[in-house]
C-alpha cells in the first residue's frame, strides 16, 4: 500500500527548501520533501571559505559533459550539489539576481506571462534578509541571509581599484537600479556562516508536524495514472516503495535532475524514450532541450608575495585562521573566496539602453575550484573569471539508460554560437587588461594563465576554448512557455499531465545575466503562491 501525503516535493535544493517552508504554512497540507543526497552536516558547508573544497567530491553528483566540440573536445566536470540545500550548500554564495530586462524578456518574448520584472520583484524582496541594504530594491525580513563581506581581502580591494582604472565605474549594489560596474559581491551568509536554502528555509521549520523530510533517497520516477501524477517511486538503498500524493507532485531536482525524472517517467521526447524502452506517457519534445549555462574562463596571476588566501594553505596559517573563526567568528574563514565582481559590456558602454553582457568573478586565491589552473607550488595567486552573460548556444540533457541510478548525458554545447565565442574572448582580453592596471600590477609577478604569448583576438578565443568551464548555472531544460518546446505553462504545470509541476531553474525560458541561485529561490517563492492560489 502506498504511503500517502498531500504534496510530494522531489529535490531538497534551493527551490525544494523554499516550497517545503511555504507550503507547510498551511497546517492542513501534508508535505513530503525528498532528497537523494545526505543531510548538510559537513562542517565545510557552513564555513563560507569551504566553497573552495566543495566543487567536487561526495556532496556533488560528479557529472561530466560529453566532449565539447567547440571547446577542444574536452569533457568538462559539471558540478551540481547532492546534499540537503542542493547547490546552495556548495556554491560560492554570490547574491545576484540578473537584470530586470531578463524577466521582461521572459514575459514579453518567451511566453512566460506573469513573470516580468514587476511581477517577480516582490518575490526577490520577500526572500531577502539583507543586513546592510534596504529600500525599494531590497528586503530585510526574508529568510535568506544576505550580507556584506566584513573585511574584503586586500587583493579584492586592489581588483576593484584596477577595474576603475580600466574604465569600469564602482557600483556598491549590483542588485539596485544599475547593474553595470565593479565592486564587492554581497553574499548569502549570515553572521560569518553560509546561509543555504536549507539553513534559511528548512532548518527553522523542521519541527512542523505536517512536514516530513527524507534524505539519501533515490527518486526513480513519477507515478502516472490516467494522465495524472499520483506519487513517486523511490529506493532508499534497501527497499523500493511507492509514495502517494493526493494533490500534487512537484519536481525541484534542478536543470539536470528534473528532466531526468520526467523522461524516466515517460514524459519527454517520444523517440528518445522509446529508444530506452520507456513507455511514453506524454510526448513532450522540450524535455531536456534548451540547456543553457555560463561558460566561465579563468585567468590566473602569480603574486609577488603571499597577499592572497593561498597563504592559508600552510597548516600553521590554516590553524590560526580556524582558531580565529571559532573564537571570534571572523577572519579568512568568513571569506567566500569569490569576493569581487563586475558587470560590463563586451562592446562600448555608450548606448544608454545597453545591458551588461559580461560578468566577472574575482577569486582571492588560485586553483580554488576543481579543474582551474593554479600557480607554482609555494607561491600565491589570484583568479579572475569572466563569462558571456546571455549565451545563445542551446544544449541538451538526455538519458544514458532507463536505470534511475545512471548519470544523465549532459551536452551544454558550450561556444556553439559564434557570438558566444566572440564575447567570451573579449571577456578574457578585458580580464588581462584589468590585471595589467597599476592597482593590480604592483602585486603581480606574472600572469601565468594565459601566458605572455597571447596578444591577439584569435589567441584569446583559443584560450577560451581550451580553458573555459561550467559556471554551475544550468537552466532551461523544462522551460515554461506556450510554444512547441514548452514543458510547463506559466503556472508551472506540466503540459498534458495533471497534478505535476516543475518549480526550479529548469523552467527558466532563457538564462538570466547573473548567478542563478537567487532567481531559483524567487521562482519557488512565486510557485508557492501559484500552488496556494494566492496569485
Structure overview:
- The chain is an alpha/beta fold and 535 residues long.
- Helix content is 25%, strand content 21%.
- The protein is built from 13 helices and 24 strands.
- The protein has helices spanning 14-23, 43-46, 100-109, 117-127, 154-165, 197-202, 254-264, 270-275, 315-328, 418-435, 438-441, 457-467, 517-532; strands spanning 3-10, 31-34, 63-64, 77-78, 128-130, 144-146, 181-184, 189-190, 193-194, 211-214, 218-225, 228-235, 240-251, 267-268, 282-283, 295-303, 338-344, 358-363, 381-388, 396-398, 409-411, 444-449, 469-470, 500-502.
- Strands 1, 2, 10, 11, 12, 13 and 24 form a seven-stranded mixed sheet that branches. Strands 7, 16, 17, 18, 19, 22 and 23 form a seven-stranded antiparallel sheet that branches. Strands 3-4 form a two-stranded antiparallel sheet.
- Helix 1 (14-23) runs parallel beside helix 13.
- The longest helix is centred in the C-terminal third of the chain and has 18 residues, at 418-435.
- The protein is globular.
- The mean pLDDT is 95.
Using the CA coordinates, give the radius of gyration.
22 Å
Distance between the ends: 36 Å
Quickly give the structural class. alpha/beta
Total strands: the figure is 24
Average per-residue pLDDT, rounded, comes to: 95
Strand content: 15-25%
* Share in helix: 10-25%
Low-confidence stretches: none
Globally, the shape reads globular
What composes the largest sheet? 7 strands, mixed
Provide a count of the helices: 13
Amino acid at each position: 500500500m502506498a504511503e500517502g501525503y498531500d504534496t510530494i516535493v522531489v529535490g531538497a535544493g534551493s527551490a525544494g527548501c523554499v516550497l517545503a517552508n511555504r507550503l507547510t504554512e498551511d497546517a492542513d497540507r501534508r508535505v513530503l520533501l525528498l532528497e537523494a543526497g545526505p543531510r548538510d552536516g559537513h562542517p565545510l558547508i557552513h564555513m563560507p571559505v569551504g566553497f573552495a573544497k566543495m566543487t567536487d567530491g561526495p556532496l556533488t553528483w560528479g557529472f561530466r559533459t560529453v566532449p565539447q566540440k567547440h571547446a577542444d573536445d574536452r569533457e568538462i566536470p559539471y558540478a551540481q550539489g547532492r546534499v540537503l540545500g542542493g547547490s546552495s550548500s556548495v556554491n560560492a554564495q554570490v547574491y545576484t539576481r540578473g537584470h530586470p530586462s531578463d524577466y521582461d524578456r521572459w514575459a514579453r518574448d518567451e511566453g512566460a506571462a506573469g513573470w516580468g520584472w514587476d511581477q517577480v520583484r516582490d518575490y526577490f524582496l520577500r526572500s531577502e534578509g539583507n543586513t546592510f541594504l534596504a529600500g525599494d530594491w531590497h528586503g530585510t525580513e526574508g529568510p535568506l541571509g544576505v550580507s556584506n563581506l566584513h573585511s574584503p581581502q586586500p587583493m579584492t580591494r586592489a581588483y576593484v581599484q584596477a577595474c576603475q582604472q580600466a574604465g569600469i565605474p564602482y557600483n556598491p549594489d549590483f542588485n539596485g537600479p544599475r547593474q553595470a560596474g565593479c565592486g564587492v559581491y554581497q553574499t548569502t551568509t549570515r553572521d560569518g556562516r553560509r546561509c543555504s536554502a536549507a539553513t534559511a528555509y528548512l532548518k527553522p521549520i523542521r519541527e512542523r508536524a505536517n512536514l516530513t523530510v527524507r534524505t539519501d533517497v533515490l527518486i526513480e520516477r513519477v507515478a502516472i495514472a490516467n494522465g495524472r501524477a499520483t506519487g513517486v517511486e523511490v529506493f532508499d538503498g534497501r527497499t523500493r516503495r511507492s509514495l502517494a500524493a493526493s494533490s500534487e507532485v512537484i519536481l525541484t531536482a534542478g536543470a539536470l535532475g528534473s528532466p531526468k525524472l520526467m523522461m524516466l517517467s515517460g514524459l519527454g521526447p517520444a523517440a528518445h524514450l522509446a529508444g530506452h524502452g520507456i513507455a511514453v506517457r506524454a510526448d513532450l519534445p522540450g524535455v531536456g532541450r534548451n540547456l543553457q549555462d555560463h561558460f566561465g574562463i579563468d585567468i590566473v596571476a602569480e603574486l609577488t608575495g603571499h597577499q592572497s588566501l593561498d597563504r592559508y594553505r600552510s597548516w600553521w596559517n590554516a590553524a590560526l585562521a580556524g582558531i580565529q573563526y571559532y573564537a571570534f567568528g571572523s577572519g579568512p574563514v568568513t571569506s567566500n573566496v569569490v569576493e569581487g565582481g563586475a558587470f560590463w559590456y563586451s562592446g562600448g558602454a555608450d548606448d544608454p539602453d545597453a545591458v551588461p553582457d559580461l560578468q566577472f568573478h574575482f577569486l582571492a586565491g588560485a586553483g580554488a575550484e576543481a579543474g582551474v589552473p593554479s600557480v607554482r607550488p609555494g607561491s600565491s595567486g589570484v583568479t579572475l573569471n569572466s563569462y558571456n552573460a546571455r549565451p545563445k548556444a542551446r544544449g541538451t540533457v538526455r538519458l544514458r539508460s532507463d536505470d534511475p541510478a545512471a548519470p544523465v548525458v549532459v551536452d551544454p554545447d558550450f561556444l556553439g554560437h559564434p557570438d558566444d565565442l566572440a564575447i567570451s574572448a573579449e571577456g578574457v582580453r578585458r580580464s588581462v587588461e584589468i590585471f595589467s592596471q597599476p592597482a593590480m600590477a604592483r602585486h603581480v609577478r606574472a600572469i601565468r594563465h594565459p601566458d605572455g604569448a597571447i596578444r591577439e583576438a584569435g589567441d584569446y578565443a583559443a584560450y577560451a576554448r581550451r580553458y573555459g568551464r561550467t559556471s554551475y548555472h544550468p537552466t532551461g531544460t523544462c522551460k515554461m512557455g506556450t510554444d512547441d518546446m514548452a514543458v510547463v505553462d506559466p503556472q508551472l504545470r506540466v503540459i498534458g499531465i495533471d497534478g505535476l509541476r516543475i518549480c526550479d531553474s529548469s523552467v527558466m525560458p532563457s538564462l538570466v545575466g547573473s548567478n542563478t541561485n537567487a532567481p531559483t529561490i524567487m521562482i519557488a517563492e512565486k510557485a508557492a503562491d501559484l500552488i496556494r492560489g494566492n496569485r
